# Entry
Amino acid sequence: MKDEGGRMKATDLNDDSNLEPIHSTVVSGPDVPSSSLRILLWDIDGTLIHSLRAGGYKEYMIPAVEHVFGTAGQLAQMRVSGMTDLQIIAEALQDEGFSNEHLSERLDQLRERYMLEIKRVTGNGVKFFEVLPGVRELLEKVAAHPRYRSALVTGNIEPVAYWKMGLVGLSDFFTLPGAFGDESHNRNDLPALAAERINRLLQVNLEPYQFIIIGDTPNDIACARHFGARSLAVGTGRFYSEEEILNCKPDAWLPDLSDIELVMKTLAEL
# Structure
């Protein structure tokens, strides 16, 4: 099902019956002026959750790509943190004769197969993902705060993003339409897509600085800067050191999201 902003609702894709509809209101709870509103745009992997095995995504992504294109190219050897799924697949197949146009033509087929494979691998009752420290409590805190609303801006394709959130019980926190890795080869494009949908849904005209991108990679910081959003980088990713992240000059950096009051103070200063 789609929300009023034209995106899938943030819910387990198998069951959206218990999710409240999204209405065109600026915030839940006490009203605040739109100028005071801040939209939190969340990355998923390395920010909200980890797979229990490094590189676990390859267990479902490789067979999906092989089924659709006949080969996974260089995917098994790639390090893909911070990339969109379209970018990952394009780079994996670049030596196999597949253009971006070929990917676009088979995108629906890829989405369908990707979902079959991730459900096969992660939907068998065995724990595959874990929520990172402080994340659930922080999402509860910001959901109760009139200044904040949350959406996903992630390299995952849209149905996979919501499947992951459903598996770990975080779906209901993301009430606004986001942007996803099946929409562009370039992560820099995603914040503007999300902002356009959110402004349309809420019937406001939020400025780029009213969006805060929270992520664990240089690409999260870069896409925030490209759009004009604020960036909060976290040190919970697997691939980048504190020094590497700080060299990218995020607006704020935290080692993790476990200190809820510190995170809320940091957000208030952005």
